[in-house]
Automatic annotation (TrEMBL):
<dbReference type="InterPro" id="IPR023631">
    <property type="entry name" value="Amidase_dom"/>
</dbReference>
<dbReference type="GO" id="GO:0016020">
    <property type="term" value="C:membrane"/>
</dbReference>
<dbReference type="GO" id="GO:0070291">
    <property type="term" value="P:N-acylethanolamine metabolic process"/>
</dbReference>
<dbReference type="InterPro" id="IPR000120">
    <property type="entry name" value="Amidase"/>
</dbReference>
<dbReference type="GO" id="GO:0047412">
    <property type="term" value="F:N-(long-chain-acyl)ethanolamine deacylase activity"/>
</dbReference>
<protein>
    <recommendedName>
        <fullName>Amidase domain-containing protein</fullName>
    </recommendedName>
</protein>
<dbReference type="InterPro" id="IPR036928">
    <property type="entry name" value="AS_sf"/>
</dbReference>
<dbReference type="Pfam" id="PF01425">
    <property type="entry name" value="Amidase"/>
</dbReference>
<feature type="domain" description="Amidase">
    <location>
        <begin position="171"/>
        <end position="595"/>
    </location>
</feature>
Length: 622
């Protein structure tokens, strides 16, 4: 007999009585032979379910899902109240061409003279921006084909590393050269004045971008970094987001590495090799978009596309673009659910999944985001989104920044593995308030443990519903051991568990909408720790380390479960030189606000950027 618990309706919860509880995950950390043996035991009838039941009981999962009355109705997809357009923005034409949206985004950016950066070699380390590449191409200093040869050389060298640590798992040098030659020809055509050479398709023409292996990039297969997904799903054309970038002249270098099926937060991948963190090759990049973040951080690509969110049709999204962006010291954007089309990806039926751009700067994020945005027609109708906007950074926005109210849940904010993380993020907030007069407001977010449980049940159940048929057909044993561990957990969830998770989603949405009546954004560290070390024994068979996962996912879940816009921006380094990121979570459809704040933080904290140990200057290589 188990005593029944009853939740108060969310609207009646007394926030003053809420006390923060540190998350304690009770699960073993296993690698190597012991991990492989443990997975085989988990997959046995009777014994495996008994072990999983014990683990779920220890973590109070069944108590919440099966023995608690939750008064709210289920919310299967995020539901948002209508909202007004943000101040100081440029509205983008969702129905216009990607190139025209990129042109509008370009006009939003502050004044910048690329020639000064090109000519002054004494400047401290900085990443080349998309505008630097455009200047170099238009002034004839370099061509896309020349840059392509440098990138091909770096990628081929990376492929020879032992043990394998690939940035890309699908790469064709001939395809890269073909795209670069076409771009070079566009820059050389015609007889236009200096700095206006040729007829480039947009400022993104000749810009090199990597695509995560769960997004279709024809003619490459989409494997989800598995060894078998391409056998059951054929790529016949580009994903919508890829086709939009291609129409702007982007050059695609190939399919970037990732945690298999996105079922992890570290980027570990025994199938092809684990991508290493450019700042410390003995540490993880974070995941699941490990390859996209690393290839940007290492200077090879100006940007990359990853995926971010919750569960989806063919793939689990435990991780995000924000985790690897934070651990690799770059910028990662998760736009609002429904803002970008998922058609042509392994996540094209996901509930809260989105395409997420990664770049070295906020302005480059804005240019790529402008190209790929555009919701599917059904989402435009059902979600009733406000029009997509970008902040007009080209104008004086000090008044807008000064009027913003920043929400901070201090107890949650400080619940990190090392105080270096929270201290650096606190320093960034202090700089922001000192420079612009932003107001910091203390907030309380109830039921964070319940939110975490609802998240894993939602994404796990949706992933299982799509992968299970193939797994039962013999593909499951070809998956990595950590994927197989996750599948055992997901099979233990019932339909009633899934409904309970959606009831919790509605409660968590209510709390956040109430908070956003008092504040404009919520700030947290992006991750609760810097890049974790890679155990050598985990390279061959993977690992299960739920304590590390808990620290990496601690602040990510609200954006995933509720589909809210969020961005990670670098704010400094710990004593070991490992990057730390600040996360900004916005109101529904408020991408312009979080981009504005991220840009301000970048200006205040960006002068101290460190050159990664593994960095390649492919634009001005001697």
């Amino acid at each position: 007999m188990v005593k029944k618990l009853e939740m108060l309706p969310a609207k009646d919860v007394d926030l003053s009585s809420v006390k923060y509880e540190h998350e304690v995950v009770k699960a073993p950390h296993l690698t190597g032979f012991v991990f492989r043996f443990f997975v085989r035991i988990l997959e046995l009838p009777l014994i495996g379910p008994a072990i999983m039941t014990h683990l779920k009981k220890d973590n109070k999962i069944d108590q919440l899902l099966r023995h608690t009355v939750i008064p709210e109705g289920p919310m299967f997809k995020p539901e948002y109240p209508p909202r007004e357009t943000e101040p100081g923005v440029v509205v983008l034409d969702e129905d216009g061409s990607p190139a025209s949206r990129v042109e509008s985004a370009l006009k939003c950016l502050p004044q910048y003279d690329p020639s000064k950066s090109w000519e002054d070699s004494s400047l401290p380390f900085r990443y080349w921006k998309i505008r630097d590449y455009a200047h170099a191409y238009r002034s004839g200093k370099v061509t896309p084909s020349m840059v392509a040869e440098r990138i091909i050389s770096v990628i081929e060298e990376n492929c020879r590393i032992k043990p394998p640590a690939p940035l890309l798992i699908s790469f064709a040098a001939a395809e890269v050269r073909k795209q670069a030659a076409a771009s070079t020809q566009r820059f050389e055509a015609g007889n236009l004045p200096f700095d206006c050479i040729g007829n480039p398709l947009s400022i993104l023409d000749g810009i090199f971008i990597a695509i995560k292996d769960d997004i279709d990039l024809y003619p490459h297969p989409s494997k989800g970094a598995s060894t078998w997904m391409h056998e059951v799903r054929t790529v016949k054309e580009d994903a919508i987001c890829v086709s939009r970038l291609r129409s702007c002249g982007v050059i695609f270098v190939g399919k970037a590495n990732m945690h298999e099926f996105g079922m992890g937060t570290t980027g570990n991948n025994p199938n092809y090799g684990t991508t290493r963190n450019p700042h410390a090759p003995d540490r993880y990049t974070g995941g699941s978009s490990s390859g996209p973040a690393a290839i940007v951080a290492s200077g090879i690509c100006s940007a990359a596309l990853g995926t971010d969110g919750g569960g989806c049709a063919k793939i689990l999204k435990a991780g995000s673009v924000r985790i690897p962006s934070s651990l690799c010291g770059v910028v990662g954007l998760k736009s609002n659910y429904g803002r970008t089309s998922m058609q042509g990806s392994l996540c094209d039926s996901g509930t809260v999944e989105i395409i997420g751009p990664i770049a070295s700067s906020v302005e480059d994020i804005m240019l790529v985001y402008a190209a790929i945005l555009g919701a599917s027609p059904e989402n435009r109708i059902s979600l009733r989104p406000s029009p997509p906007c970008l902040p007009a950074l080209s104008l004086d926005d000090s008044d807008i920044l000064g009027s913003l109210r920043i929400g901070k849940y201090t107890a949650w904010f400080n619940d990190v593995h090392s105080t270096e993380v929270s201290d650096k993020c606190e320093d960034a907030l202090n700089l922001l308030t000192k420079a612009h007069g932003c107001e910091i407001i203390e907030i309380v977010i109830p039921e964070l443990h319940e939110m975490r449980t609802a998240h894993v049940v939602s994404i796990g159940s949706e992933c299982l519903s799509s992968l299970n048929a193939d797994c039962e057909d013999g593909k499951g044993v070809k998956s990595t051991y950590d994927t197989r561990t996750s599948m055992v957990l997901f099979r233990s969830f019932t339909a009633a568990d899934y409904i309970a998770a959606q009831r919790i989603r509605r409660r968590i949405m209510h709390y956040h909408m109430e908070i956003f009546k008092k504040v404009d954004i919520i700030v947290t560290p992006t991750t609760g720790m810097t890049a974790p070390k890679i155990p050598p024994s985990a390279l061959q068979s993977g690992e299960t380390d739920m304590q590390t996962t808990a620290y990496l996912m601690r602040f990510i879940i609200a954006g995933n479960l509720l589909g809210l816009p969020a961005i990670s921006v670098p704010v400094g380094y710990d004593k070991s030189g490992l990057p730390i990121g600040l996360q900004v979570i916005g109101r529904p459809w408020a991408e312009a606000t979080i981009l504005r704040i991220a840009s301000a933080v970048e200006r205040l904290c960006g002068e101290s950027k460190k050159r990664p140990l593994q960095y390649h200057d492919v634009l001005r290589s001697n």
